[in-house]
Specification:
The chain is mainly α. It has helices at residues 4-15, 19-27, 34-46, 50-70, 75-97, 99-115, 131-134, 146-169. Helices cover 69% and strands 0% of the residues.
């Protein structure tokens, strides 16, 4: 069963700025799907908590991309990109104009993700693909491969961020030591 209703309710409450939902999601971030973390990041950005907004945004991006990489429906990749754009345009603009703060939040997100246990259903991502329109079954790679996919996605995400920092600061601009 895909976590549609719970995710939708939590996202709506976050977008409405309900303080109890902001607190609850931050207290148990491993229990919620990436769209909820995207909405949390958006709300924190609206409240001018820029570091926390970037941290949760990057965490949501990383987890969403990792979950998309587990799906055999390639259209979920585009769905994840749309989610990122929907909730993160302001955060991304802020981050690019504050590279030191962006780097700090990214390093924190990457370090946190290495040890944080995900306790949500990664199949949520099927809701953002085209198969959801035509199928009741969603094709994913075997579950035993998921930890490896998480690790590979983590490395690729860190590598992509390092390249971004080099483009912003020059070759000596960023080293992720983890």
């Amino acid at each position: 069963l895909l976590p549609l209703e719970t995710t939708r309710r939590q996202v709506d409450e976050l977008l409405q700025g309900k303080p109890e939902t902001v607190i609850a999601v931050q207290a148990k971030p491993n229990e919620v799907t990436p769209p909820v973390l995207f909405a949390l990041a958006y709300q924190l950005y609206q409240q001018q908590h820029y570091h926390d907004a970037m941290f949760w945004f990057y965490t949501a991006q990383l987890r969403a991309r990792s979950d998309a990489n587990k799906s055999l429906d390639q259209s979920v990749q585009q769905g994840v990109t749309k989610l990122s754009e929907q909730f993160g345009s302001g955060i991304s603009a802020y981050a690019l104009s504050h590279p030191a703060e962006m780097e700090s939040a990214m390093v924190q997100a990457l370090r946190w993700d290495k040890t944080a246990q995900r306790r949500y259903n990664p199949r949520w991502v099927a809701l953002h693909g085209s198969e959801v329109q035509t199928s009741r079954e969603y094709a994913f790679l075997p579950m035993e491969r998921w930890p490896q996919i998480d690790q590979l996605t983590h490395r690729e995400y860190a590598r992509g961020f390092a390249k971004l920092m080099v483009s912003l600061r020059g070759p000596s601009g960023f080293t992720l030591s983890d």
